[in-house]
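PROTEIN FOLDING TASK:
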Amino acid sequence: MTWRWESFFNHAVTRITEKLDLEPYPIPIDMVKKVGSTGSRSNPIDVTTTSWGVRNAKLRQARAACVVAEPSPQVLNLVISPEPSFDLPFFGADLVTLPGGHLIALDLQPVLKRDRLHTEAVWARLLPLFDHFRPLLPDGGPIPEEAEPYFSPCFLWTRLPLTSESDTLIDGPLMDAFVAYLDLYLELVLEAVSVDDVRRQELREGQLKYLDYRAEKDPARGMLTRFYGESWTEDYIKGFLFDHR
């Protein structure tokens, strides 16, 4: 079965494992791989969700959720969550193919957006990347006001139709942007030094707000519920995708 985002996933796993000393992130056994179906009774379509996760002293969790059906949906949701002892943003990439087109979001997401100590050094290095790639991809449009605290000014967000021209953009500037954003994030991780207990608590509280918001507003909830049922979906969202471990 063809997966549109396989090259992105393979690149991320390769780069993360090359750059960092890691151990597996514990994934509940029934969440490592889940098989369901979509489509109609007369024409069912198999859909498989697989999970990948690692961690280390600086990263609480680096994980991917991969949804594959033919021809759609096809999803790569990659989130890297730092340990609160390190003043780091989240890395977030949502690469989604649906019958209506591709929805793509890429960002280094702030834990404390209004805290200049947390944001300025990151955004100064991220902004040149955003300025380079933003003109190369169509603008995805406005985001909800309630989501604004959880995205940086360098949020790369685009919508693309299911065309050969879009495939060229995905395999060209989008892949280049994904590589550049991820490389910068890994550089930040390698450079990060631990903070004191007061700062750690501030970062922890910011992370919990982010994780709770993402769990509450996860746009994949409806899709996963159709495939696998409400109980498994809620356990997956809260017990793996945005857990508090």
